[in-house]
Design a protein that fits this description.
The chain has helices at residues 12-19, 24-37, 47-59, 64-75, 85-98, 102-113; strands at 7-10, 42-46, 79-81, 118-120, 129-130, 134-137. It is α/β, with parallel strands linked by helices. The chain has a single domain, classed as 3-Layer(aba) Sandwich (Rossmann fold). A six-stranded mixed beta sheet has the order 3-2-1-4-6-5.
Length: 142
């Protein structure tokens, strides 16, 4: 299946691995994915992803100003979708149908709202199709 020109959604864990060098192999894979593999795609994240990204990196004791710089880099390279009441309502339906956590359901709802065909995540079921249009892919399984 080719994803040329598709809209893709990036889950928090992919960004965390790219910007945190605790696992150099995962960092290498995610940086390549972000820099090369997504160059011909429209990439999306949600405001939730930015908030989770900040929270995770701060737990790794990365300085506020450094995280702020990373967030600015991310915001300048992807589309950021807001979390609205409609997003939350869609997340309830996703959670009830697919049994993901609330936070993963919000991520999936955001990806669906953005019209994404693929979401890259380490945390969700690889190759699962959500609502007949969104495929979950774990790039770290390659």
């Amino acid at each position: 299946m080719s994803y040329m020109n598709d809209k893709i959604f990036i889950d928090t864990n992919i960004l965390v691995y790219a910007y945190n060098s605790d696992d150099l192999n995962k960092q290498k894979i995610t940086i390549k994915l972000l820099n090369e593999d997504f160059s011909d795609k429209e990439a999306y994240i949600s405001a939730q992803v930015l908030n989770e990204f900040y929270a995770v990196l701060s737990r790794y004791k990365i300085a506020h100003n450094e995280i702020k710089q990373y967030v600015n880099e991310i915001v300048n390279s992807v589309q950021v979708s807001p979390i609205s009441v409609l997003t939350s309502q869609k997340a309830f339906a996703v959670k009830e149908k697919y049994n993901y956590s609330w936070w993963d359901s919000l991520i999936l709802a955001s990806a669906l709202e953005c019209g994404c065909n693929v979401i890259y995540s380490e945390d969700m079921q690889n190759n699962q199709i959500i609502e007949t249009s969104l495929q979950i892919l774990n790039p770290l399984l390659k």
